[in-house]
């Protein structure tokens, strides 16, 4: 991923706010275009991480589930934040994953202009490709500020999406177990 050009982003933010009639000469706002550039750069940049796996020596064959991983993403239509919680689980095959990596993968796909459905599938597919587990389950629940603070202003609405792969999708018992843990 290329380094963000903060100088160009700052002058674009300045022009954008100016076009909207925001008085940038007012004390307190003089550094706002740069802050805005940095804030979006942060929202579009996941922290790098290493993918750490361990052999599944104990042949652990039940689901591993991390619940309520908080995340903030940005809707690709309005560039307004949507945030909520992810529950991510997998049924191990030959390897198990360092637990923190489940939260890191959520961040990897949150920090970009997104739609919630795609993000849900990307997290599930990434785990499937990098870990070759017997199954994967991902449930996201989020509040989209583009539909709560503007537009339809449906305050308090949350949206839930899910992606189930392998045995978590096909095997009724595993699927029910995962969805029960995910609170659905
Ligand atoms: N499916 C999906 N839609 C999203 C997501 N985030 C935002 N949206 C929707 O994207 C749509 C964009 O619709 P448009 O009609 O082009 O935009 P708009 O005129 O600002 O629409 P309103 O929000 O209804 O005022 C809206 O319905 C948003 O609620 C998401 O993660 N998934
Ligand atoms: Zn939106």
TrEMBL record:
It is an enzyme of class 3 (hydrolase). Zn(2+) binds at residues 75, 78, 146. Its EC number is 3.5.4.16. Keywords: GTP-binding, Hydrolase, Metal-binding, Nucleotide-binding, One-carbon metabolism, Zinc. It comes from the Bacteria. Residues 10-181 form the GTP cyclohydrolase I domain. InterPro entries: GTP-CH-I_C/QueF (IPR043133), GTP-CH-I_N (IPR043134), GTP_CycHdrlase_I (IPR001474), GTP_CycHdrlase_I_CS (IPR018234), GTP_CycHdrlase_I_dom (IPR020602). Belongs to the GTP cyclohydrolase I family. This is GTP cyclohydrolase 1. It comes from Aquipuribacter nitratireducens. The gene is folE.
